[in-house]
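Quiz preparation item.
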């Protein structure tokens, strides 16, 4: 019974360690689902990712954390079925938190199998990659925005001028396709016309890009004559073009140039118009400085204005996205109290379908809501949170109870806000931030009730502990009495049996005959074995109860002393080899003697007939521990019995062939555990055994 309790204690301890290990992975949600599709366990990481406490979610449907769309399409059940069918199911999709917000999860579902490989549940491991997903989507949006920009742009790498980005307008102007130029060098795609000696565009552009890379500043080039290759579908060759290029560096960390934005304006229509008016070709290729500067200024100002407008639109969109993504409710009003901005979180918190619906019903707020102080009593309309902010007050976590009159819903809210003033100190806006703290208040109430309950339970537990301590003390006293009885009263008759059997064999052996002598021998042998069994049980009992004082143990001297005292461990009966030096350990000398003696006993006993026992003992350091190896050339042990042989009264062979009590290895393991170590074996049938003891290391030099 005591052995079962120890096993249960070890099992509980292992489960606690496993639970602690799972809960320490706070960035990962780890939870189990049973065959009925209900959540069976819930880690701290799962609570952090999804917002559900363990007592809220265990027993709920697995589909609870999935989006409405995935639930309607049966995705939760499909994941479990695929995991059961294929042994693994990836899970990369949007999920839903307790508060209704969404998170993008990367994870997998795997089946849990018992020792017979039967599926008894499923384990899901998930990681929040929402930021990565949003970054990828934002990057895709920015790329799409860049490619659809009306200007003629290329993005180049700074060293080899390789093309890594191009706007659609540039592709149209240069008669190229994105797949045909991406990843290629700029001058590979746009070389000089080899048949036109006046082409200097490539040389000039290359010099400008080199200046940008070296000086890390924008370079505005003069209008360049730079023919471009004409597609074969349009006759091939080169088409004359005039361009106004501007090359701008993109600086990364440390001011290093990471990319170059190559922006051009196609000046060909303007140049041809001037040609039609009779301007010489050489003048058109090199127009006067003033005309060139005016053209460049017009182009630059137009592009800068367009960029500024795009930046304003982008910033406004980003601010709107941040405003709507805030988990707390936000209200912005004018000085008269009219709502200008309301985010979706505020609308959901107060029971509206959308922010627009909330703004539309503002005139009904007074009839719709009641606001109370936590201790009771209605808050006057002139002291409502927004009214106080518009009076110029600053609110910080003002907690009130709110109730909707139409449906009776009640919840606790925390209000923080402040007025916004212009440079003249005039109030222009009121900003109010709202948080739903209902669950916090409920948790505080539950916590108080739990503390009271724990106090009552603690008092009851203390009373029970005192009662059980008294009973345990009585039981220990009874066990000590029983041990004394076994040691003295029970062993005395055994010694008498052995003595009388020896007298009968000596004095009356001839009268009894061979068969009678054989019976006497069996009686004496059984008495001796029972005496050994009682002695081993007493040894194990003392090992469980006695206190230990640990000190440095010299294993090599101890082992040589054991061999010297036991003839069974000496030639010619056996050969015990000590691989010197043996490392010292921190332990208890008497327990260490018991362990080594029992292991050597087994090593010389469990050998095949006709085999001379050979034993080899050595040590090796393992971190702050020492592993002691005892290797023999015996009959070996099958792998399925490696743990069983350390249990009490476990024997794998008949007593007639290999005599013993079946307690020796149980004593070894218990003694090692009492010294803070572990014991085990590596063995195969017919190949001998290697028993090992892991003990705390001593001062080894």
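Solution:
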């Amino acid at each position: 019974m005591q052995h079962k309790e120890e096993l249960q204690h070890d099992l509980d301890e292992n489960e606690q360690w496993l639970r602690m290990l799972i809960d320490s992975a706070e960035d990962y949600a780890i939870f189990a689902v049973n065959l009925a599709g209900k959540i069976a366990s819930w880690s701290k990481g799962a609570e952090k990712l999804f917002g559900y406490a363990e007592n809220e979610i265990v027993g709920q449907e697995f589909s609870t954390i999935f989006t409405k769309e995935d639930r309607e399409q049966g995705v939760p059940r499909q994941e479990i079925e695929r995991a059961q069918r294929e042994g693994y199911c990836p899970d990369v999709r949007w999920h839903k938190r307790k508060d209704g917000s969404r998170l993008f999860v990367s994870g997998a579902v795997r089946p849990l199998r018992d020792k017979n490989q039967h599926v008894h549940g499923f384990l899901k491991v998930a990681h929040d990659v929402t930021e990565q997903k949003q970054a990828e989507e934002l990057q895709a949006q920015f790329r799409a925005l860049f490619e659809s920009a009306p200007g003629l742009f290329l993005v180049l790498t700074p060293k080899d001028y390789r093309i890594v980005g191009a706007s659609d307008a540039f592709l149209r102007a240069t008669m190229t396709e994105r797949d045909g130029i991406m990843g290629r060098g700029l001058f590979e795609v746009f070389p000089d016309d080899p048949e036109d000696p006046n082409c200097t565009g490539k040389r000039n552009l290359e010099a400008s890009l080199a200046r940008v890379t070296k000086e890390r500043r924008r370079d505005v080039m003069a209008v360049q004559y730079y023919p471009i290759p004409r597609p074969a579908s349009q006759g091939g060759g080169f088409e004359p073009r005039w361009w106004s290029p501007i090359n701008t560096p993109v600086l990364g960390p440390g001011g290093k140039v990471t990319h170059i934005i190559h922006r051009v304006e196609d000046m060909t229509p303007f140049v041809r118009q001037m040609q039609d008016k009779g301007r010489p070709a050489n003048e058109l290729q090199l127009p006067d400085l003033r005309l060139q500067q005016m053209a460049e200024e017009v182009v630059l100002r137009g592009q800068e204005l367009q960029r500024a407008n795009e930046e304003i639109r982008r910033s406004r969109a980003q601010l709107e996205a941040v405003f709507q993504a805030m988990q707390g409710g936000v209200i912005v009003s004018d000085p008269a109290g009219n709502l200008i901005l309301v985010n979706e979180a505020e609308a959901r918190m107060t029971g509206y379908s959308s922010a627009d619906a909330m703004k539309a019903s503002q005139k009904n707020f007074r009839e719709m809501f009641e606001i109370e102080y936590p201790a009771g009593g209605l808050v006057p309309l002139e002291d409502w949170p927004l009214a106080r902010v518009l009076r110029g007050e600053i609110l910080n976590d003002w907690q009130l109870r709110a109730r909707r009159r139409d449906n009776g819903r009640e919840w606790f809210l925390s209000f923080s806000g402040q007025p916004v003033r212009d440079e003249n100190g005039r109030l222009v806006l009121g900003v109010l931030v709202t948080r739903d703290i209902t669950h916090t208040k409920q948790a505080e109430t539950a916590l108080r009730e739990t503390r009271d309950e724990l106090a009552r339970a603690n008092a009851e537990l203390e009373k029970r502990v005192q009662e059980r301590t008294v009973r345990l003390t009585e039981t220990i006293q009874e066990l000590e009495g029983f041990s004394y009885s076994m040691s003295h009263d029970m062993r005395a008759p055994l010694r008498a049996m052995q003595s009388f059997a020896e007298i009968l064999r000596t004095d009356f052996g001839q009268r009894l005959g061979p068969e009678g002598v054989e019976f006497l021998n069996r009686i004496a042998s059984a008495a001796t074995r029972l005496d050994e069994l009682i002695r081993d049980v007493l040894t194990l009992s003392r090992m469980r109860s006695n206190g230990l004082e640990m000190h440095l143990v010299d294993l090599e001297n101890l082992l040589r002393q054991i061999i010297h005292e036991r003839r069974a461990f000496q030639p010619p009966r056996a050969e015990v080899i000590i691989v010197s030096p043996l490392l010292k350990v921190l332990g208890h000398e008497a327990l260490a003697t018991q362990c080594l003696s029992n292991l050597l006993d087994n090593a010389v006993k469990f050998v095949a007939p006709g085999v001379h026992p050979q034993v080899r003992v050595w040590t090796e350091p393992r971190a702050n521990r020492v592993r002691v190896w005892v290797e023999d050339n015996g009959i070996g042990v099958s792998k399925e019995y490696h743990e069983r042989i350390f249990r009490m009264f476990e024997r794998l062979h008949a007593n007639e062939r290999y005599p013993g009590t079946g307690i020796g290895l149980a004593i070894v393991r218990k003694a090692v555990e009492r010294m803070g170590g572990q014991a085990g074996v590596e063995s195969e049938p017919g190949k001998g055994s290697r028993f090992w003891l892991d003990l705390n290391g001593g001062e080894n030099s």
